Amino acid sequence: MSMIFVAPLVGGAVGPAIASAVAESVGWRNVVWGAAALSTICEVAFLCLFRETYKVAIIKRRVSEKSRLADRANASLLGGGGGRKGQHKRTYSEMSIGSSKREAWRRLRDSVLRPFLVVFGSGLLMALSLLGSVTFSFFYVISVTLPDILEDNYGLSGAVKGLCFMGFTVGSFLAVLTCNAFLDRIYIALRDRDAAAAALGP
């Protein structure tokens, strides 16, 4: 969890620092093209390598795997002479397959609704989403106002303005490390205290 929060914080400092230097030297269009290329690479890696964690999708995958194993067992029994010649028994997969068009629309619907079901089905995820949105809001305000202040009031160049964002990220990084070091210990101490109080009774 700490590493997930560190990634956008580090990007919030490294991105402006590199982009400001590149924009000052080769132009802002190259910054946009570079950001698009990096985003595409990261998205492809995310889709290919990120592990599925949604329990409904995991259960469906397990059921599908069991149905394939049952089909193989049925096929081996039929191939061994267990049925009449020329007679074909419908396997579990064949009986469960519906219309391909209806299945495609169902998968599209599930893919669209899955993020909403996951977020609104967990209070913890809703709290984390609220935290992330508030953090991004503050960072966005800093990102759009600080460069003009540094350029108009202090006369700093583009590369130097990008380096000024390092302060926000360094402070946020230290805060994440602090939470990572003490949050689990605080939670375990409170859990043990409540368990001991419950064991003693009223």
Average pLDDT figure: 75
Helix share bin: over 70%
Rg for CA atoms? 27 Å
Q: Output the structural class.
A: mainly alpha
Largest sheet entry: none
Tell me the number of helical segments per DSSP (H or I, 4 or more residues long).
Answer: 8
- Low-pLDDT segments: 81-97
Shape: flat
Total beta strand runs: 0
**Terminal Cα span:** 36 Å
**Beta-strand level of the residues, as a percent range?**
under 5%
Give, in order, the helices and strands.
HHHHHHHH
Walk me through the structure.
This protein has 202 residues and is an all-alpha fold. Helix content is 85%, strand content 0%. The protein contains eight helices and no strands. Helix 1 packs antiparallel against helix 2. The two termini are 36 Å apart. The model is unreliable at 81-97 (pLDDT under 50).
Please give a handful of descriptors for the protein shown:
about 200 residues
Summarize it.
This protein is mainly alpha-helical and 202 residues long. It contains eight helices and no strands.
Note the topology.
Layout: H1 2-26, H2 28-49, H3 55-79, H4 92-96, H5 100-120, H6 123-154, H7 158-163, H8 166-200
Helix pairs in contact: 1-2, 1-8
